[in-house]
Amino acid sequence: MQPGKTDPVVWNETLFFDLNGASVVKLEIWADRHLKSKRCIAKIAIPVSGLLQSLHDLHTLEIIYPKESTQHVIAQVAVGVANSAPRFMALLDGAIDLEELVTFADVWGPLLNKINSLTAIIDKVSEVHPYLHMAWSLLDAGHKIVLAQQDRDARIQQLAEVIASAYNSFTIEDESFQPSQNQQHILNSLSKQTVECGYFIISYYKNSFWKRTTKHIFSDVDSLISKYEAEFHRLKAALQTNTATTTQLVVQKTFGDLEDLMEKFDLSDIPYAKGARYQTGKQCLIGTRKEILQKIINWINISDEKSSRVLLLTGLSGTGKSSVAHTIAEYYNQLGRLGSSFCFDKKDLQNRNARTLFGTLAKDLSEFDQSFRHALVKSIGNSSSLRGTQDLSDQFKHFLLNPTQNLSISGPIIIVIDGLDESENLGARTELLQLLGNKLKDLPPNFRILLTSRPEDDVRRILMKNENIYCEAMETISKASNDHDILHYVHSQLTDEMGQPLACFGEKHYKTLAEKSEGLFQWVFVACYIIKGNGQGIPPHYIMVEEYEHITSGSGQAQLTGVLDDLYKDILSHIFPGTRSPKLLQMFKKVMGQVLTAFEPLSVTSLREIHSLTTDSLNWVLSQLGALLTGVSDLSQPIHFLHSSFYDFLSDESKSGEFHVGYAGQFHKEFVQSAVNTLNQELRFNMCNFPSSYLANSDVPGL
Questions:
Q1: How far apart are CA 142 and CA 140, in angstroms?
Q2: What are phi and psi of 586, to 5 degrees?
Q3: ∠ CA 399-400-402 to the nearest 5 degrees?
Q4: From the CB of residue 531, how many other CB atoms can be counted at a distance below 10 Å?
Q5: CB-side exposure of 219: number of CA atoms within 13 Å?
Q6: Distance, C-alpha 685 to centroid of its chain
Q7: Which of 512, 504, 493, 513 is CA-nearest to residue 541?
Q8: Residues in contact with 540: Cβ distance below 8 Å, sequence separation at least 6, in sequence order
Q9: Closest CA to 452 of 355, 599, 344
Q10: Using one digit for the tens of pLDDT, what is the confidence trace for 599-653?
């Protein structure tokens, strides 16, 4: 229409759209200019959920170009949902009525807004924030699925009302509000329970789960919802009275009856790697690596069944990929969703290798879920040869694939495998990589397997180019995010015993260390360790300042790819000045040669006894390497390389130069000779002091 200059613009056309609760209605007003191109001068975007909550409200348009003749434009628009919706709903066969839809929005909308507000306010509360964010994203995804259903279950609506009631018990005073320790604990439990309910709601509606109730897959749904509601009522009461409460997470993963399920099955003969579990102490520092962690969490929680079951996270040495893996493992262990974790270690290949991987995963999963345990026993039967097989294909098929095929599992099951590049030597690990790349996709769609590795050639060829694997790289983390994380880490490390900032350092020093790291966490870890006295106690301020100046003027100038090698050289030159003390350097090489050679990590005590090294020399050499080795402060603890790149550095003369220890193989002869000498010295008749050598072992108490 062409209105006059003083006539109002009126548009009263009736339109029908196929919308859901996640849809957005957009309206734009364009100026038709005779001598110039058309221009949008006003616009508005209104979520459908917002329209349903305020059916008769006026919605104000955003004026984009106020200099246009906008006095002829109606500045507010009334969208006629109230009159058209009943007629529109009547056109849909079996559709719900508007009153029910508004009731649904009245519950879910405020609930999501409340959780979102809490997430923003307690962003720095590490114990709570990750789970609150998960709770919001899962409920948001769940409510969209529920909204799209024509047959909406009243039980789910009632559960949502109970959840909303619990969150409404938490009063947010203002944006500066910080919850007490007790409130944080309750919110932690509340958010974890909400995450579990999110998994349940999504599984209930997706993949025709809810239509299968006639098959008794969900015969215990009413009982489960009652348990959920009881837990939310308990947490609500705790919030209202601000009383301490214990964590009682209600988790339901598998639905259906387990026929003839025995309480215990003997699975002791399945290969299992002790000590391969993730370590909570190796998690990311609070407030760091949010970007990559959120990507992985979204892949686990929100991705659909067609998404890849496998995510490969790659990164150079020292970029923190293992810390990310340990953090994800801890997050989902807290939620009762971690099926298993396995961390390879090249210094523990006798125990943690490809041949113990699938057995470890299977035994962990059998403890994680009773139905899997029952299926595992059926898969391997009484075959001792199958239980003890070293064939990777047979292990994967009978330990993992077969037991999972007929399980009805609600919600994600997480498996974390860290350090694939340390699983075997280059030739031996090809079989494992091919199996992971080609067979993990056959596991149930809600299995999520996180792999980490350095981007070595075989990993790139076999896994990174595999269409079944979703790949992420630490190097893709934005520079701004990475710089923030490293600076935050430096702040956290240069503190005294009470956690207070060291007076001799300021923001300038923090930023300089962060810049010199060139994006590598390992660099700042070692640098801060040296500055604070190599674990021997915080030295006087002037010594720390000298160490800081020494570090920032030397190693920090290295290129990114050589920064760790240059840092190792700098540390070792500081401790073992070879040109001034060749004997000291030879002692270092002898000690580290034995550490490199051992197939299994040995303690300081074991090294001393096997190699007849003097206590003083051995203890002194190892005590100086606390920035690069673990276990040096406890004589009985096995010695591990803090980072695998130090092992590579010592073995590669082009990297280490005068500190080149050599290849482990060249020390084997000396190691064997030392072991034989130890046997000759220590072996003797009746070492256990048995009263009689005629007794059988079974007749000796305690043997």
A1: 5
A2: -65, -40
A3: 90
A4: 28
A5: 7
A6: 53
A7: 504
A8: none
A9: 344
A10: 778 887 877 777 656 667 777 787 777 667 777 767 777 887 766 678 888 888 8
Note whether 284 and 324 are within 8 A (CB). yes
Please tell me the distance from the alpha carbon of residue 259 to that of residue 374, in angstroms, as a whole number: 9
Q: How far apart are CA 375 and CA 440, in angstroms?
A: 18
Per-residue buried b or exposed e for 99-131, using 16+ beta carbons within 10 Å of the residue's own CB: eebeebbebbbebbebbeebbebbeebeebbbb
Reading the block at residue 360, the tokens are 């470890």
pLDDT tens-place string over residues 92-102: 344 444 455 55
Burial 243-277 (b: 16+ CB within 10 A, else e): eebeeeebbbbbbbeeeeeeeeeebeebbbbeebb
Q: What is the pLDDT of residues 512-560, one digit of tens each?
A: 999 888 777 877 888 888 888 877 888 899 999 988 888 887 544 443 3
- Nearest Cα to 327, choosing from 368, 293, 291? 293
Q: Structure tokens of 266?
A: 């003997």
Q: Nearest-CA neighbor of 479 among 530, 429, 520?
A: 520
pLDDT tens track for 568-587: 887 787 677 655 567 778 88
Alpha-carbon gap, residue 651 to 647, rounded angstroms: 6
Asked if 354 and 431 count as a contact pair (C-beta separation under 8 A), the reply is yes
Q: Go through the chain and tell me how many residues it has.
A: 703
Q: How far apart are CA 72 and CA 4, in angstroms?
A: 9
Within a 10 A sphere around the Cβ of 692, how many other Cβ atoms?
8
CA distances from 109 to 21, 199, 525 (A): 10, 19, 44
Residue owning tokens 């206590």: 615
